[in-house]
């Protein structure tokens, strides 16, 4: 008989680890979900919702708690403040949870974790929050626009100010609102081994619901799953998790049999796997057959942890035309100069396009880190561009919506490297190209586009295509 699990206790511990900077949300939650694979689907869903909801709403929750507590949230012990946050989230945003249960469980957890002396404080604050529910005071939008948006969408004030600089107010608010919506879980079909309808049938047989992707023919959005590794089609490598924004990036340059493709920041391997699949299809061979003549993908990243994740995905997907190397993308490889048909540079970035999946980014990121990233990106690009052969393509991408990291870096490439932009009009689905025309951060004729949450049905993402002229 499986040991009884206290889901709230797991959530409180996870949130405290993230708050202390010990773990990122994806790492901390992923570890719990792996360690408790026997957790029921209902408990897994409750845990995930409670952690993500509390994280993404943290600023708003703190603002509400501070209205009733004499001890401000910032002065509380980390475990206690996260206990208050997640309990308030249940009270205000999880309608199926009785207020009494949220309060009582919080008091019991405080005692269990050695904070018996603070259990009365926890109980008093939560009871006051229950009484005040629906009557909290928030900043006035007309007088304090930035503060209102910060609390309303639980976004750090400095980041609200930046977003209002980057985008018109209505669009900025649309993006912030989208970050609070649950993003879809999208998978890319391994077309070298199956097709979309066959995969759909396998998933339905396992009780998983599917719907077609918005922009790409080789994707499905899935729901109703419990644990990914329990899905036979996943274990057999018939699909991989990949958002449509990233799938689109993999289709921006033509792939021919025999091409050499380099992915300089490859982990966890989605772009490399997609490129390898396209090589199989271009060569007209089955994935499990002899791959000679289909070309090759060189997937690089820094450190054994990242390359290990790539190896795991290659093994599961059963690819034979990918080589993995540990390599710092800033370090020039003299052997690779002008030798690749396609080079992917999906560089380290601020991650502001995926706040809906990784809400802790907005609390950890600083303006200083953003400036450091600009320098790192240029170091990588100045080296990476040299690997593109004549008539070859560089595909530059980020998962941020910061124009300085996006179109600003494309301008830097144009000023420092002999690469020319490639129009995206024929690369993208027509209905997506029509959406992007005139949208801030996008210029299809100049070879780049920014996908914006709330405007596009995918993660925030940027990609640009540049080509080295044959002459």
Measured between the Cα atoms of the first and last residue, the distance is: 71 Å
Task: Give the strand content.
Answer: 5-15%
Secondary structure: helix percent: 40-55%
Radius of gyration: 24 Å
Shape: globular
Number of helices: 19
Protein structure class:
alpha/beta
Strand count, sense and closure of the main sheet?
A: 8 strands, mixed
CATH architecture of the largest domain: 3-Layer(aba) Sandwich
Which stretches are low in confidence, meaning pLDDT under 50 for 5 or more residues running? none
Output mean pLDDT.
94
Count of domains: 3
CATH homologous superfamily placement of the largest domain:
Vaccinia Virus protein VP39
* Broad CATH class of the largest domain: Alpha Beta
What fold name stands as the CATH topology of the largest domain?
Answer: Rossmann fold
List the helices and strands and how they pair.
Layout: H1 7-19, H2 25-35, H3 41-56, H4 58-65, H5 78-93, H6 99-112, H7 119-132, H8 145-152, H9 157-166, H10 169-179, E1 185-189, H11 196-205, E2 209-212, E3 219-223, H12 232-235, E4 239-241, H13 244-249, E5 260-263, H14 270-283, E6 296-301, H15 304-317, E7 322-326, E8 340-346, H16 361-364, H17 367-384, E9 388-398, H18 407-416, E10 420-421, H19 430-436, E11 448-451, E12 461-467
Parallel strand pairs: 5-6, 5-8, 6-7, 8-9
Antiparallel strand pairs: 1-3, 1-4, 2-3, 9-12, 10-12, 11-12
Helix pairs in contact: 1-2, 1-3, 1-5, 3-5, 4-5, 5-6, 5-7, 6-7, 8-9, 17-18
């Amino acid at each position: 008989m499986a040991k009884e699990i206290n889901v709230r206790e797991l959530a409180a511990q996870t949130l405290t680890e993230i708050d202390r900077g010990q773990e990122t949300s994806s790492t901390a939650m992923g570890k719990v979900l792996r360690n408790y694979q026997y957790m029921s689907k209902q408990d897994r869903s409750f845990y995930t919702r409670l952690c993500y909801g509390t994280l993404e709403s943290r600023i708003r929750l703190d603002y509400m708690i501070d209205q009733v507590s004499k001890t401000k949230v910032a002065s509380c012990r980390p475990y206690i403040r996260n206990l208050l946050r997640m309990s308030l989230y249940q009270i205000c945003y999880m309608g199926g949870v009785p207020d009494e249960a949220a309060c009582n469980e919080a008091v019991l957890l405080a005692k269990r974790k050695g904070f018996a002396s603070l259990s009365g404080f926890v109980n008093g604050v939560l009871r006051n929050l229950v009484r005040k529910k629906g009557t909290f005071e928030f900043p006035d939008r007309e007088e304090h626009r930035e503060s209102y948006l910060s609390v309303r969408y639980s976004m750090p004030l400095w980041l609200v100010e930046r977003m209002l600089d980057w985008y018109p107010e209505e669009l900025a608010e649309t993006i912030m609102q989208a970050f609070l919506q649950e993003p879809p879980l999208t998978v890319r079909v391994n077309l070298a081994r199956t097709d979309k309808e066959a995969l759909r049938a396998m998933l339905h047989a396992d009780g998983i619901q599917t719907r077609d992707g918005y922009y790409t023919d080789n994707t499905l959005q899935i729901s109703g799953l419990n644990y990914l590794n329990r899905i036979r089609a996943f274990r057999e490598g018939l699909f991989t998790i990949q958002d449509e924004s990233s799938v689109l990036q993999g289709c921006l340059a033509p792939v021919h049999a025999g091409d050499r493709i380099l992915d300089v920041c490859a982990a966890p391997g989605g772009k490399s796997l997609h490129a390898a699949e396209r090589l199989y299809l271009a060569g007209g061979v089955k994935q499990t057959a002899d791959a000679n003549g289909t070309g090759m993908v060189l997937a690089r990243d820094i450190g054994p942890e990242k390359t290990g994740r790539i190896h795991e995905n290659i093994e599961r997907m059963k690819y034979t035309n990918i080589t993995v190397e540990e390599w710092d993308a800033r370090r020039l490889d003299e052997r690779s100069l002008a030798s690749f048909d396609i080079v992917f540079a999906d560089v380290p970035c601020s991650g502001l396009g995926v706040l809906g999946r990784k809400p802790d980014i907005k609390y950890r990121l600083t303006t200083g880190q953003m400036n450091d990233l600009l320098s790192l990106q240029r170091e990588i690009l100045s080296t990476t561009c040299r690997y593109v052969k004549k008539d070859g393509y560089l595909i530059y991408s980020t998962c941020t919506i910061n124009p300085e990291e996006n179109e600003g870096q494309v301008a830097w490439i144009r000023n420092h490297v002999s690469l020319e932009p490639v129009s995206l009009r024929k690369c993208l689905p027509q209905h997506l190209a029509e959406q992007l025309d005139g949208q801030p951060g996008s210029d299809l004729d100049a070879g780049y586009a920014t996908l914006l949450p709330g405007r596009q049905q995918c993660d925030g993402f940027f990609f640009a295509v540049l080509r080295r002229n044959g002459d």
